[in-house]
Amino acid sequence: MNLTLWIVTGLLAVAFLAGGVIKLIRPREKLAAAPGGGWVEDFGAGAVKAIGAVEVLGAAGLVLPGVLGIAPVLVPLAAVGLVLLMVGAMITHLRRHEATAIVVNLVYLALAGFVAWGRFGPESFTG
């Protein structure tokens, strides 16, 4: 179970790190022009950068506390934060009638929820 949690955590961290970095370095207009980037039109440039920063911080929070052994309770808290971020993403895509994006967000939500459950419960770093 611990190995499965680490694998899922690593995959989530890579996905959120990549998505966050793209949101941080690409201009809003280029993000909007990309496939599936229409949601950017609903947000200002600062909000898109803030979402990117939250994703990068969430990715770091999934891995670094557990690897370094410093405040490992931050791992499940980061996972819960990413669950909340995905709920917001699903609401945005629901309003825009983007069903495919909702499915992707639901997968990320389920994986982050699994990490939160596993690290708060049976495979806690403190247990």
Description:
It comes from Actinomadura miaoliensis. Keywords: Membrane, Transmembrane, Transmembrane helix. This protein has one domain. Helix 1 runs antiparallel to helix 3, helix 1 packs across helix 5 and helix 4 packs antiparallel against helix 5. The chain is built from five helices and no strands. With 127 residues, it is mostly helical. The chain is globular, with a radius of gyration of 15 Å. 77% of the residues lie in helices and 0% in strands.
Keywords:
127 residues, mainly alpha, 5 helices, 77% helix
In short:
The protein has helices at residues 2-25, 28-33, 45-68, 74-95, 99-120. The protein is mostly helical. The longest helix is centred in the N-terminal third of the chain and has 24 residues, at 2-25.
The amount of helix comes to over 70%
N- to C-terminal distance? 14 Å
Total discrete domains: 1
Radius of gyration: 15 Å
Note poorly predicted spans: none
Mean pLDDT: 94
Largest sheet: none
Q: Give the percentage of residues in beta strands.
A: under 5%
Morphology call: globular
Supply the number of helical segments. Answer: 5
Count the beta strands.
Answer: 0
Computed structural class: mainly alpha
Question: What are the secondary-structure elements, in order, as H or E?
Answer: HHHHH
Q: How is the topology of this model organized?
A:
Blueprint: H1 2-25, H2 28-33, H3 45-68, H4 74-95, H5 99-120
Helix pairs in contact: 1-3, 1-5, 3-4, 4-5
